[in-house]
Fold these 2 entries.
Entry 1:
Amino acid sequence: MYDLKGKKGLIVGVANQHSIAFSCAKILDRQGAMLIASYANEKAAPFVLPLQDSVPDVLFKQCDVSCDEQLANLIAFTQSTFGKIDFLIHSVAFAPLQDLEGRLIDAHREGVQLAMDVSCLSFVRLVRLLEPILNPSSSLITMSYLGSTRAVKNYGLMGPIKAALESSVRYMALELGQQGHRVNAISPGPIKTRAASGLKDFEQLLETSELKSPLNRHLSIEDVAGTALFLVSDLSKAITGGILYVDNGYHAVG
Ligand code: NAD
């Protein structure tokens, strides 16, 4: 049912084995998709390149999404390797710690601009650059969070940025629908990853969402990857402009 043989795509945002992006790479690779997975910089390489052993067919490529030249190189590499592709998974977020830790109203302009550029605008940029090499009915996916629609303690400036990301999903769904492309966001509940560990009192957020969620269970990166698999597959061909919550139901009751 989820046979992805013949599908090719790009996954952006692997930092280590705990990354949502890596879990997506593993499950899509297992279902037969051909993949390029990118990581941000040379500092990440020692944590990322050893992952090649568990996904030997995945091609890893370095790319800082805030750098136009590196983005262009990633697109050129994708085109020369695959010709055209069928999906993009954007699983990237960043905010300078000093701006993330403080109040939104105290965040520095440079910090907000950088966080917006990396966490939201890079998705839009990637889609624009990839458009010429997208097969019809491609699936374009990004990762959001509930802090986009609710004020979640300690999520600070990332809340408005995820709100902009979700709005971009809806606009791009409208703009690209004619070509059959689908644009969606997955909104996972809290999961212990490197990005999440930058949030103040993250353990408390994790505990609360586990305790209060209707399914009352531990959430894993594999849960998120399963939804990414569904969105990449043709089974989700009528879903676009959506925010799919993968949070054990917390958004409905928390
Ligand atoms: P992660 O740290 O494994 O992934 C974040 C990735 O962003 C890393 O690979 C990092 O290198 C990359 N990144 C940051 N700046 C970059 C840049 N300039 N260029 C290229 N890459 C850059 O953490 P994760 O939890 O897997 O995060 C993936 C996505 O999921 C993020 O968008 C995050 O906001 C979202 N998300 C995470 C949670 C959670 O609790 N873990 C919940 C909801 C949403």
Entry 2:
Amino acid sequence: MARRKMVAGNWKMNMTPENAVSLIKTLIPLVQNEDVDVAFCVPDLDIIPCLEAVKGTNIGIGSQNMYFEEKGAFTGEIAPDMLTSVGVEYVILGHSERRSFFAENDETVNKKVLKAFEHNITPIICCGETLKQRKQGITLDLIRMQIKIAFYNVSPENAKKAVIAYEPIWAIGTGVGARTDQAQEVCKAIRDCIEEIYGDLVAKEIRILYGGSVNASNAHDLLNQPDIDGGLVGGASLKVDFGKIVNYDKIQTESN
Ligand code: PGA
């Protein structure tokens, strides 16, 4: 039942189409690891040129958001079939930056998750606590709530295909990632929560990533935790270091 590892880059609001293609071309030879699924979640305008650039490789392209309606008067939004029609496989949903700057909440995340599955897009569903919430001792309660709402009405067949990303907000873009034991503790709690909702089989199959200041030095330890199936990588996904993260399983061998 071994789950395949996954390392996804979240480019956020970086890279013009021209720069995006040049970065993808630089990264393609560096992100070869047959045991790891690799994806780049790029700005929408970069999607088509990036899809062209990854043709013939096993790299997937994702969006960083998507609306939960099919089409219509929703200025500035992107519809699911616009993404699938060009070959997008993944969509990040509920990233903390969307929650804090763009009024995303657990209910809208749930609607988007349901819509993504209707269109066969794999959602990368983000959850995570602020530093204050961690200090208040409510991390696991909050994460369980985020997960339960995100998966409300999602069938077990779909749930097992979802990817969850645990991203403590205090670790995003700060250079200070969660300690390995902290990340493992929450990822395990997420898996337990999925088990409560869907049972053992879905819990064993669903992939749970850790995100928040993942880099070439901490990737090996983080990605070797029993409940961490990969990483969602922001800053380091814009650098050649991303290749080292994808090849986290070789890092130790090299330093030994
Ligand atoms: P970071 O971002 O790796 O730059 O901390 C992670 C994310 O926001 O997905």
